[in-house]
Amino acid sequence: MNAKVKSARPAATTRAKVLIIGTGFGGLATAYHLKKAGERDFIILERKGDVGGVWRDNSYPGCACDVQSHLYSFSFAPNPDWSRHFSPQAEIHAYLRKCAKDFGLLPHVRFNHDVTGMDWQEEAGEWVVQTGQGEFRARHVVGAFGSLSDPAIPRVDGLDNFQGQVFHSATWPKDFDPRGKRVAVIGTGASALQFIPAIQPEVAQMHVFQRTPPWVMPRHDGPIHAVTRLAYRRLPLLQQAERLRLYSQRESFALGFMYPKLMQQAQKTALRHLQDAVRDPVLRAKLTPDYTLGCKRILISNTYYPALAQANVEVSTDGIATVTADGVIGRDGVERKVDAIIFGTGFQTKDLPFAHYIRNNQGRTLAEHWAGSPKAYMGTTMHGFPNLYLLHGPNTGLGHTSVIYMLEAQAEHIVGVVKHAAQNGYDIVEPTAQAEQAFVRMIERDMKGTVWVAGGCDSWYLDETGRNSSLWPNFTFKFRRLAVEIDADAYQGRRVAAQAAEKVRA
User: Fold this and answer.
1) Nearest Cα residue to 174 out of 164, 183, 161, 165
2) What is the residue range of 174's domain?
3) The whole model's pTM is what?
4) Which of 122, 214, 293, 409 could form a disulfide with 361 if both were Cys (CB 3.0 to 4.6 A apart)?
5) What does the angle CA 199 – CA 200 – CA 204 come to, to the nearest 5 degrees?
6) What is the structure's pLDDT at 502?
7) Domain count, the chain
8) What is the pLDDT of residue 348?
């Protein structure tokens, strides 16, 4: 007699009022502001086993922030113990871990929960979120995915044939030893400018394949004296004053991005920086940009140019023809034998991976809705995708100062909308089409004449349609003023049917 086979029980569904996806700066800021507002019914999903987002994942040699530490931190969590003006990755990661612990956020986190799908259920007024660890349902979902979280590796002919190590800077192997190796570096973005000088003294040979030279400014870095740190601990107002000084200084930089002619003096500084470090006129010509400073991301380094000028480094601007089993053949026909290939090619910003698995009630993905050009009201909410909020969403990136300022403003906006819905008895809330369109028109108006559209370059800021859907084209205090005060007329709300609401409560 055959024994009965028990059918597997479906995994239980976990419910919460608010679901936050991601534990980087944006996710933690939102969780903090929810708790501050008295909301405790929230869960944070994290795909890895620790908090920190990009500052957990990017641990390559030389990884550090290019915004000063006292500004690149939460306004509600000042840290008097930063060791340097520009903090290294490990310190920033430790700071985020401490914040998560100090503000009681860790009990809300579900680690190792990688989100694979999100579907809006209009009749229930909730999101159904699928993860590798089971299903979650929530009235509101906050996507703190980060726009710099998924590495971009370009298609390179023959790459699969390579027998050595291949990796992106964001997935740097802990056991990789560069000593004595012949290394090919593909890309010269922000990460490459940090790891190239860090490993250059150790490698036998380095071949840097550059497509477009970046503008590089001096890095005014250094240790923060122990006496200064002690003063910040004992007199918090001193640190607040330093933060305000840095904010004001960097906010003034926005003028150059808004009015490109003002970039001329900064370009002279950058060219002097290049000339002082690179005496070889041929190499200097390769490293001199032909577009206006600011059109692409401005990078800062005191060690990048000196590293490229060393005898064991070659800079190639001809491009790559193909990769062989043990080398890289450039378009100049020369094969460079290498032991490892490292990509410093940035992240997937033009086709955001999460947009392909978020579906509205008609089954249309966010990627289809955006059609290659992301748009959102306050860079945060979208008509047609109710109760969904994006951190670091369309047109909230920055070229001149700390994005943490923007993330905090977005977090306050999100909490304000959630409260607005509760106070008015709405189960479902979304921006009106008119409000979203008016916000986008304002962005387009402010973007005209800026360095990003008039600077003569093709950058990752531009989407598939050629529109700059990444950056905020104005002062950050203007964004904050618009975001933190909820315009009730900009949002439309509704309730779900009584029977559906009863099911949700059950």
Assistant:
1) 165
2) 159-214+253-343
3) 0.93
4) 122
5) 105
6) 52
7) 2
8) 75
Same domain for 126 and 174, yes or no, is: no
Nearest to 500 by CA among 18, 38, 78, 137: 137
Given 343, 366, 385, the domain boundary residue is 343
| pLDDT of 497 | 76
Q: Is residue 224 part of a domain?
A: no
Is residue 44 in a domain? yes
CATH of the domain at 48: 3.50.50.60
pLDDT of residue 498: 58
Q: Give the model's pLDDT for residue 152.
A: 82
Give 240-292 pLDDT, tens digit per residue: 999 999 999 999 999 999 999 999 999 999 999 999 999 999 999 999 999 99
Reduced DSSP (H G I as helix, E B as strand, rest coil) percent helix, strand, coil of the chain, to 5: 35, 20, 45
Q: What residue ranges in 219-355 does DSSP mark as E strands?
A: 299-300, 313-316, 320-323, 327-330, 335-337, 340-343
Query: Does residue 241 form part of some domain?
Result: no
Give the DSSP per-residue string, 395-425: T-B-SSS-HHHHHHHHHHHHHHHHHHHHHTT
Residue 317 identity (one-letter amino acid): T
At residue 503, the pLDDT reads 53
Answer whether residue 171 is part of any domain: yes
What is the C-alpha separation between 487 and 420, in angstroms, rounded? Answer: 10
Among 343, 361, 378, identify where a domain stops: 343
Distance from C-alpha of 60 to C-alpha of 72, rounded to nearest angstrom: 20
CB neighbourhood size of 153 (10 A):
17
Q: Which residue numbers in the chain have pLDDT < 70?
A: 1-11, 149, 498-506
Q: What per-residue confidence (pLDDT) applies to 350?
A: 76
At residue 9, the pLDDT reads 41
Ramachandran category for residue 334: left, alpha or beta (phi over 0 → left; psi -120 to 50 → alpha): beta
* Beta bridge partners of residue 167, listed in sequence order: 342
Element (H, E) at 42: strand 42-45
